[in-house]
Structures are given as structure tokens and as C-alpha cells.
Write a structure and sequence with these properties.
The complex is a heterodimer of chains A (307) and B (123). By secondary structure, chain A is mostly beta strands. Chain A is 9% helix and 50% strand. Chain B has a single domain, classed as Immunoglobulin-like. The radius of gyration of chain B is 20 Å and the shape is elongated. Classes of the chains: A mainly beta (307), B mainly beta (123).
């Protein structure tokens, strides 16, 4: 059974069986609802499923299209794990199309601070991309990469009344260091490839029309506009050593998220910051399920510690 | 490739099909007085419409004046005709000024949400 078939079966089995118990909020800090962002990892721990996240962009090597799935599960109200996989389609210039699965990604995150009054969330976590679990034809690494990271989220709801129209704004972001388990590897054509440590950092600026309408001023927005969150995400990577230091790549992704009770849809343009990052504007779209709202008495609750 | 993507579609449909509940976090839909509004006549109650039915016994609406004094009658109750509406009575003849409404509700699936907004009574 292929990986995605296993994931699909696992999801359906968990849904069917469930494990009755009870859940806390997800993506909330006081009055602030933080949506799941598309390009930068969000700071909160919750039960969620991104299925699918689809992106496409033209790079120096050719067009790259990815279809990804991520499922996150709370172990305790503040500790969660996440499993991710990606199916990649490569259309190299002057070569045949190839496709395959990337490496499996596993991560854990601990949300150690939630401040309702100041709409703040802090968390830390680590991700491991498990080398050798993906297919070489789509350039899945043969080595693993560990990425410890720090995450933050802050809503501006505590601004004074004179700045009330800024209160719907919020920022989330992360800083992490990707550390490959192998400093260099030999490619299929015999070349030695250096694998530098890479600083990963990014943030998302959001302006929640939900917050505007509910907490600041009822401006008379009706569906679907009253559930929109326009945002811009900034996602960067800077190698730190092994001959590639300072060669930053990244994208700036303006877009919008529409959030309903159980599901959110997001779409963003992917604007490369330089030629190393891409040759033209790409696009990313995501369907994201709030499992804690969909299955509040079973799958959407922490396994332990729910009150 | 189409065969490889089939499990994606199956999983998406599975999630949607299994999501038979009609419960979720309760969000504010609208309020009376309206969020951020200026009104000339002092209201006798604050009424909030939520996106879900809420548990009145574990939910509250509190109203404060600019000095922080609570000016509601501490009688948060749901609307008999609509369990998604929560009301609280206000003390008689509120003077002109700015008021802060602080709400905290538990939806029927036990999710807790909270928020606040202001309204003003102008002379």
C-alpha cells in the first residue's frame, strides 16, 4: 500500500473509531483566532488536517508542482505532533517530466505560552525530514535533516482605542535552523554536494476581517467577506556554511484565507525574492480542516489532559 | 499520476462525509448595540447573536463603563426562542459614554471562545 493510501486509510479508521473524550481551543489566544498559514508554520498546537496543499512555481531548473498533506494531532492540550508528506511533479527544462514522493516529515511542537489578554502565543518544536523515505527521482535527500524552531504569534487587539482599526492585525512567524545529518553527499552523477546548515525564518502579516467585524466595528460585511483574512507571508532560507553561506532564497506570498466553522481555504501568490528562488510568480492553495471542530468529541481532542 | 492522487480525494471525501456534527466554536455574528457603534438612546440590554447554540449556564456577557464599573444586572441568559442568542440586562438609564462588552461563551460542543467590543452612547 502506498503512503497516501495508508494515510487515507488511517484517517478514515480514526474517524470511524474515534476515542471519546473532551477539547480546547485551537488557534486561539483570547479573542484572537489565528488561521493556519500556508507558507510559514503557525505557532499553535491543534488538531488539523491540510489536505491538500498544492503549489506550483517555475525555478531555474524548470517547473515544480507539489501536492502535500499534513495532519497534526494534539497529544496534550499544549503538545502536538505532525506528519507531512509531499508528492512532487518536476518538469525540468529539456527533460521528461518526473514525479514521486518526497521524504516523510515528522515534527513535534510545544506551546509553552498562551496569553489571552495580549493575544500572544509562543512555542518551540523540532521537525525531522527522514532521509531515504522519499524517491530520488524527485531529489528527495538520502540524509535526514533536523530543524529545531521557535514560533510566535501576536495579535494587536491590545492596542489603544485610538488605533482601533489596527487591532484586527496580527503577526505569526518562526525562526529555525535546519541541520542535515550529513555534511556532504555524492550525487548520482558522482559529484560531491555540500549540505549546509540553513537558517529558516519567516512571518505572516494578517488583517482579520473576522476580528474587525466581531471585536472592533461592525462595518456591515456579509458572507463570504466577513470571514476573510487577507495576509502576506514572508518565507526565507539562508545557508550558513559549506560554501553557500549568505545565498538567501525566499518568497513573499500575498493572499487571502477564508475561514468557516470547520474548514478554511487559502490561496496565495508566490513571489520569488531573487532568481535563485524562482523565475516567475507561482501560486499556492490549501484546503485545511479544523479537526477539533469537525470531531469535537473524538479525533479533535487531545489524547491526554483534556479538561 | 491520477491513480496516485486518488487516495487524496478519498481522504477528503472521508473527512467531509464523517463530519456529521453541526457544532463548532461559537463566533459572534452580530450584536445589539452593534459592535463599535454610536447610539443616542441608552439600551436596556445587550444582545449577542452567535454562530452556534451556547450554554447559558457557563457563558457570560459583562458590560463595563470607562471606569471599569460593571453596569449590567449580572443576569446573562439565553433567548428562549434562539439558543444562539445571549442577553444581559443593563442598569437603568446609562449615561452618555463608552462601554465595553466582554463575552465568554461555551458552545454546545464545549469549545470556549471569548471577545469584547465597545459601543458609545452619545448625547
Amino acid at each position: 500500500m502506498r503512503f497516501f493510501e495508508k494515510v487515507a486509510v488511517l484517517i478514515l479508521v480514526l474517524i470511524a473509531v474515534g476515542f471519546p473524550r473532551s477539547a480546547a481551543g485551537h488557534g486561539f489566544a483570547g479573542a484572537r483566532f489565528f488561521p493556519a498559514t500556508l507558507s510559514t508554520d503557525d505557532p499553535f498546537v491543534n488538531d488539523e488536517l491540510s489536505l491538500p496543499t498544492v503549489s506550483t512555481i517555475k525555478t531555474e531548473e524548470g517547473r515544480e508542482t507539489a501536492i502535500a498533506v499534513d495532519v497534526a494531532k494534539r497529544i496534550t492540550p499544549n503538545l502536538g505532533i505532525e506528519l507531512g508528506e509531499e508528492f512532487t511533479v518536476l518538469n525540468p527544462k529539456d527533460e521528461h517530466q518526473t514525479s514521486g514522493f518526497g521524504n516523510l516529515e515528522l515534527s513535534a511542537k510545544y506551546q509553552f505560552l498562551t496569553n489571552a489578554e495580549h493575544e500572544a502565543i509562543l512555542s518551540f518544536g523540532a521537525e525531522v525530514e527522514i532521509g531515504g523515505t522519499g524517491q530520488q527521482r524527485v531529489e528527495a535527500d538520502s540524509f535526514s535533516t533536523w530543524t529545531p524552531a521557535f514560533f510566535f504569534g501576536k495579535g494587536l487587539g491590545d492596542l489603544p482605542g485610538t488605533l482601533s482599526l489596527l487591532r484586527p492585525a496580527a503577526v505569526t512567524g518562526l525562526v529555525g535552523l535546519a541541520i542535515p545529518s550529513s555534511a556532504s553527499t555524492r550525487t548520482t552523477d558522482g559529484e560531491i554536494e555540500q549540505n549546509p546548515n540553513v537558517l529558516q525564518y519567516g512571518f505572516a502579516l494578517e488583517y482579520s476581517l473576522i476580528y474587525l467585524q466581531e471585536q472592533v466595528k461592525d462595518v456591515g460585511l456579509s458572507a463570504p467577506f466577513d470571514r476573510l483574512i487577507p495576509l502576506v507571508e514572508f518565507s526565507f532560507e539562508t545557508p550558513l556554511n559549506r560554501g553557500e553561506s549568505g545565498q538567501t532564497t525566499g518568497t513573499i506570498n500575498p493572499g487571502v484565507i477564508w475561514s468557516s466553522k470547520y474548514i478554511q481555504f487559502g490561496v496565495e501568490a508566490i513571489v520569488p525574492i531573487n532568481k535563485r528562488s524562482g523565475e516567475s510568480v507561482g501560486v499556492i492553495g490549501q484546503v485545511h480542516f479544523y479537526l477539533d471542530d469537525l470531531f469535537p468529541r473524538s479525533l479533535g481532542r487531545p489524547l491526554f489532559g483534556y479538561r | 499520476m491520477q491513480k496516485q492522487l486518488l487516495p487524496f480525494v478519498i481522504a477528503i471525501l472521508g473527512v467531509i462525509a464523517a463530519a456529521v456534527r453541526v457544532e463548532a466554536h461559537a463566533f459572534l455574528v452580530r450584536a445589539e448595540p452593534r459592535v463599535g457603534s454610536k447610539i443616542s438612546k441608552a439600551p436596556t440590554e445587550v444582545r449577542v447573536w452567535f454562530s452556534e447554540a451556547v450554554q447559558a449556564n457557563t457563558s457570560s456577557i459583562k458590560v463595563f463603563d470607562v471606569t471599569g464599573k460593571q453596569v449590567d444586572k449580572k443576569d446573562t441568559h439565553s433567548d428562549r426562542a434562539n439558543p444562539a442568542v445571549l442577553c444581559v440586562s443593563l442598569i437603568a438609564a446609562l449615561p452618555a459614554g463608552s462601554y465595553k462588552v466582554v463575552w465568554r461563551v461555551t458552545s454546545s460542543d464545549t469549545h470556549v471562545t471569548d471577545g469584547n467590543f465597545h459601543f458609545q452612547i452619545v448625547p
